[in-house]
Sequence to fold (210 residues):
Amino acid sequence: MRHKGILVVVSGFSGAGKGTLMKQLVRTYDTYALSVSMTTRAPRPGETDGKEYFFVSQEAFEEKIRGNGLIEYARYCDHYYGTPREYVEKQLQSGRDVILEIEIQGAQKIREQFPSALLLFVTPPSIRELRRRLSGRGTETEEVIAARLVRAQAEAEGIGQYDYLVINDDLDVCVKEMHMLIQGAHRATNRNKELIETIRTQLQELAKGE
Ligand code: ADP
Ligand code: 5GP
Fold:
């Protein structure tokens, strides 16, 4: 029997390694679809429109909100970020697990709309390592890094709403662990109501036939 895909939310402090992890996860396994968000922030060097994000103006973003084209959206460090609805719904229907790499307010909205979504929070092994990764990436000014570290404090308060904490120390180990958690989630009973219903019906029919 073909299952509907699971919605997987991945959040974590800026610089924790979410983007790197997600790229490797979808490269390694072919059952995952990575949702591409829309944002009003400027592309970083090396980022391409339609790949990391759909980079749009504030007007275009607000138009998308009005048209109900986003499942969720939030403001993060002075910019809008949101998840386009159409891609996610299509991929879930086709049976693929859809990964949303989004921040904590968005994660909350997803949990409200999709109670069976799996919520993962990624952390680096230490905050010293987080700082090192953020500076090492070399894509933000010191001022932007400072703002993101302040934001991390607020995010740390919300970790409790996530299903699992995933520590991104060794990248390969972490990718395997995430894959295992997602595969495990497929077997959670609250995500398999239809299958359970089918099993019960078949058992009833079997009992009647005897
Ligand atoms: P995020 O998407 O969470 O902001 P990135 O994926 O951009 O983070 O990673 C931040 C930096 O840390 C990048 O330079 C990346 O190469 C590096 N990085 C990611 N994961 C690891 C890891 N497991 N070990 C060492 N460096 C890592
Ligand atoms: P960055 O600018 O580093 O790419 O992303 C900043 C933050 O925005 C990250 O925490 C990232 O997970 C989050 N983010 C990216 N896309 C979305 C989205 O579609 N919705 C929400 N709510 N957050 C997002």
Summary: Residues 14, 37, 41, 72-74, 76, 81-83, 101-103, 105-106 surround guanosine-5'-monophosphate (ligand 2) (CB under 6 Å). DSSP finds eight helices and nine strands in the chain.
